[in-house]
Design goal:
The complex is a heterodimer of chains A (317) and B (209). Chain A is built from seven helices and ten strands. Chain A has 317 residues and is of the alpha+beta class. Chain A has two domains: 257 residues, GHMP Kinase, N-terminal domain (Ribosomal Protein S5, domain 2); 43 residues. In chain A, a hairpin with a 2-residue loop joins strand 7 and strand 8. Chain B has two domains: 59 residues, OB fold (Dihydrolipoamide Acetyltransferase, E2P); 121 residues, OB fold (Dihydrolipoamide Acetyltransferase, E2P). The radius of gyration of chain B is 22 Å and the shape is elongated. Chains A and B meet through strand 4, helix 3 and helix 5 of A and strand 11 of B. Chain B: One of its GO terms (molecular function) is RNA binding. Chain B: This is Csl4. Chain B: It holds the Pfam family ECR1_N.
Chain lengths: 317, 209
């Protein structure tokens, strides 16, 4: 079943173009000059840190640092659909909620809209990933908290949610990885920082007749079946440029995938060891109880109770 | 596309991640938990340890066991423990709080229809003579409807396990079964009709044919 959700023509993270009416092409030029420009295009991810199971109070959680972007994702176990929200669906329902920490973003006015927009995009990206046929009449809530914003928000959130879902034990068809690339004034920015994304949002065409390429591409891929879970583009790009950026993002996705695989494998090993310890403890407890029962049989009930009472420190007083 | 790499650690365990190809679909291979089939191959859908169980009937069950927490949702054929919430002449509403031997985090809705209370004399069943709100019952999941799980107690091992007499709620002494259709309060000696379960260890309950 194909559902088409209306998506406003906004930039990827919801910053609308109409907000700053008085920006001129000159301002853009100045802003662009102040930026650090890449000398060559390196299709590698930023320095990344991922950890699964950071919170002990929820079942599936993951924390990810992608450069300076810091994101925390939480997956709660499936809940039953309430009657009021029951849609006649033959699939489970996925809900994603994104929240900015109060200190994450300087502009507070646009935050609610960005949160809503990111949530919608995240839902779309994760829907092909989760085996939704296993959660008929259930809804799965994924919550994302953005602690620090330095660009690539959506792709980082997707990566983080992917890890959290696996950590929670939700069936997924594959591991999802996502990355962002953008082009501005013929310069390709891989993993654009918040500054670059802001610049793209403020872009005003110069008065020259020839239109310059400017745009952002976010791509989430699942490599086992070579599928794209979500591919989002905004701005103006020629098809050749689009393909070029797509290749860059796929390249980054591949290396991120290696990293995520390693993190998850380590996590499984870690939990396996914990499980073994727990089993060992359980076995010892069983042995202890068996010993008590054996003693009970030997001593007889009355004597046994007497002997136990003497050991109790509270009854001594 | 990368090959189906599987880490072989010292303990001789096979770790897999979602989307990893496990083996080809064959006649004697059965898909277990945490796997799915796609294009003639079996893939993992969870991270965990691969286990291949050989059954005596010459088929192999491939499944992925996730260490640590794993998610439980009542499936068709599972024996569940539920609390009766509301009874009406046609059905009883229950809250499922335990599946097999796993305690659930949150309870799920269950529905027990009049026709599924017992195997014989289905037309002479009265819900109010079988269950009372507050009873703890053992039941088998037979179906998943739009809003809730359909339950059935049409087996002698299924039915009321713990019940309290209607008038002696305060001292909370569970009634003692005195037959397949009656329970008695040991304090007040009041007898009340119930669909009593013959409680056995779960392993001895025969699985659904």
């Amino acid at each position: 079943m194909l559902r088409v959700a209306p998506i406003k023509n906004t930039l990827l993270d919801g910053a609308t173009i109409t907000e700053q009416l008085y920006t001129t092409p000159k301002d853009c030029e100045d802003f662009f000059e102040s930026l650090e420009k890449p000398t060559e295009v390196k299709a590698t991810p930023r320095s990344t840190f991922i950890r699964a199971g950071v919170l002990t109070t929820v079942l599936g959680s993951a924390y990810m640092e992608y450069g300076n972007t810091k994101v925390l994702a939480i997956v709660a176990p499936p809940r039953e659909l309430m009657r009021s929200s029951a849609r006649r669906m033959n699939m489970g329902v996925l809900n994603c909620y994104v929240n900015f920490a109060a200190f994450a973003s300087g502009e507070l006015e646009t935050v609610p809209e960005r949160e809503k927009h990111l949530g919608g995009m995240l839902t779309k990206a994760l829907e092909p990933l989760v085996c939704r046929n296993e959660f008929l009449n259930f809804q799965l809530d994924v919550r994302v908290l953005i602690l620090d914003d330095d660009g690539c928000l959506l792709s980082t959130a997707i990566n983080c949610c992917g890890v959290a879902l696996v950590e929670c034990g939700i069936s997924t068809y594959d591991i999802i990885t996502a990355s962002t690339a953008c082009i501005y004034k013929n310069l390709v920015f891989v993993n654009p920082s918040a500054k670059v994304e802001e610049l793209l949002g403020q872009h005003r065409g110069a008065d020259s007749a020839q239109m310059e390429e400017h745009g952002l591409l976010m791509n989430a891929s699942m490599d086992t079946f070579e599928q794209l879970a979500q591919c989002q583009q905004c701005g103006y790009m020629k098809p050749e440029t689009f393909v070029k950026l797509l290749d860059y993002t796929l390249e980054i996705n591949k290396s991120l995938r290696q990293l995520i695989r390693r993190v998850l494998t380590d996590r499984v090993k870690e939990q396996h060891v914990l499980d073994k310890k727990e089993q060992e403890a359980e076995r010892q407890e069983d042995e202890r109880l068996a010993g008590i029962i054996a003693r009970l049989k030997e001593q007889g009930l009355h004597e046994f109770i007497q002997s136990n009472i003497k050991e109790d420190p509270y009854t001594k007083k | 596309m990368e090959t189906d790499t599987t880490d072989q650690s010292k303990d001789d365990i096979l770790i897999c991640l979602p989307g990893e190809r496990l083996c080809r679909v064959e006649d004697n291979v059965v898909l277990g938990e945490g796997t799915y089939e796609q294009g003639g191959y079996i893939y993992a859908s969870k991270s965990g340890i691969v286990s291949i169980v050989e059954s005596e009937e010459k088929y192999q069950m491939v499944s992925v066991n996730k260490p640590g927490f794993h998610l439980t949702i009542p499936a068709t054929g599972d024996v569940v423990t539920a609390r009766v919430l509301v009874t009406t002449p046609k059905f009883a509403k229950c809250a499922i709080f335990c599946v097999r031997n796993v305690l659930l985090e949150s309870s799920y809705r269950g529905l027990l229809r009049k026709e599924d209370v017992r195997e014989t004399e289905k037309d002479r069943v009265d819900i109010y003579k079988s269950f009372k709100p507050g009873d703890i019952i053992l039941a088998r999941v037979i179906n998943q409807m739009e809003q809730s799980f359909m339950l059935s107690t049409a087996e002698s091992e299924l039915g009321v396990v713990i019940a309290y007499a209607s008038d002696a709620r305060k001292n909370r002494i569970p009634m003692v079964p005195i037959g397949w259709g009656e329970m008695q309060c040991p304090q007040t000696t009041i007898k009340e009709p119930r669909k009593v379960a013959k409680v056995l260890p779960e392993s001895t309950i025969k699985s659904e044919p």
